[in-house]
Amino acid sequence: xxTEFTKMHLLGxxxxxxxxxxxxxKPSGKLIRQWANRQRGIGFDQLLLIEKPRPKSTHFYxxxxxxxxxxxxxxxxxxxxxxxxxxxxxLCTENPIHLMTMNNLLELNIEESGKVTANLGVPIFAPEKxxxxxxxxxxxxxxxxxxxxxxxxxxxxxxPHCVIQVNCLDQVPLEDLGTYFNQHPHPYFPQGSNVEFMKxxxxxQIDLRIYERGVGExxxxxxxxxxxxxxxxxxxxxxxxxxxxxxxxxxxxxxEGKGSPVFLRGNPTVVFQGTID
Length: 277
What we know:
2 domains; 4 helices; alpha+beta; Diaminopimelate Epimerase, Chain A, domain 1
């Protein structure tokens, strides 16, 4: 049975978006891994699935699957792409759009320019809710690894994030540390973690590289950009609104401080539409 899909990206962070309301589609880890393969499949970082709303007070239920086939709870860039998909497919005419994930309610505002701003919710710092295992005091945790000792800011935006500030991004052990933190079981991160290496240029600009759990290093990651800005703000080194430069290009993040939601702004793009068996 053929499945219709739309290939999208935001700064090279690429997705396959599937409408599972108007067609019957049941995801499986094996199928997602096959489709995610960049040589033998479609190729993508995440598969995004749109289902009927639960609860009915929202517009849609939004599911996210990493390239390894595992379902996760958050993808900021993916949410921006889903908003544009819903608009172009005329599946929703309301603005803002409310999406429910497995553990969070997202609000998406579409601008006339085509850019989208997502309210990704209030960050979580309680270690047991991230989840993260540590005996030290937040917000900075010293973590010993086979690649050295790192001072990490750890938080959740639906998925765990580990943010590390550095002076240079060229030589950081991103792949090694990302792989290490996502070994199962791990003494610090029972469910693994995204890893962000951040270089602060000034209070309103940072450079960022990101290892996404279940994917590897990506060109961009919206929730990772948000996590980095939150970490820098907690350290009193960043402003409330920050331009984040990633390998794929820039994103804008705004956070007012503890107890406030974080906002992500970017310009999603449709690449092509197709069908696959």
